[in-house]
Write a structure and sequence with these properties.
60% of the residues lie in helices and 9% in strands. It is built from seven helices and five strands.
Length: 136
């Protein structure tokens, strides 16, 4: 079974002070199977890593290594995210007081009927309210 991977989880994998055994197990699961991400995911993750470099949390070389590792994951980049921006995503954002960015993960998980891996508390609450399984 695959899952929708929120950027918050992938970003936490990158910073030693945010890693946990549960997150490590989820990283292994994604690395050995697959996950689905919305089209904004690479931009969100790349931006967080850039901010990590700027704030001195990781070195630029580590960021580059992490970006290469993410490139190697078997991730399906959802081609339909943009088609739902004006409709379902915007509606879910308003209904659950989410950003449009977070709502795109929720919409994708609902549309694909997949569990959602997120560390974002508001997104997890919205997903639970919509009847989705939350990981980790």
């Amino acid at each position: 079974m695959t899952l929708v991977l929120d950027g918050s989880v992938a970003i936490a994998w990158c910073f030693r002070d945010e890693r946990t055994p549960v997150l490590d197990a989820l990283r292994t699961r994604v690395a050995t199977s697959s996950a689905v991400v919305p089209s904004i995911w690479p931009l969100e993750v790349a931006n967080a890593l850039l901010m990590g470099v700027r704030r001195g949390r990781i070195a630029a070389e580590e960021r580059d290594h992490l970006l290469q590792a993410f490139e190697q994951l078997d991730l399906e980049h959802d081609a339909e995210t943009r088609l739902h921006a004006w409709g379902g995503i915007n509606r879910l954002a308003g209904q659950h007081s989410l950003t449009v960015y977070d709502a795109c993960y929720l919409e994708l998980a609902l549309r694909r009927r997949l569990p959602l891996a997120t560390l974002d508390a508001a997104l997890a609450r919205a997903a639970t309210a919509e009847g989705l399984t939350i990981l980790p």
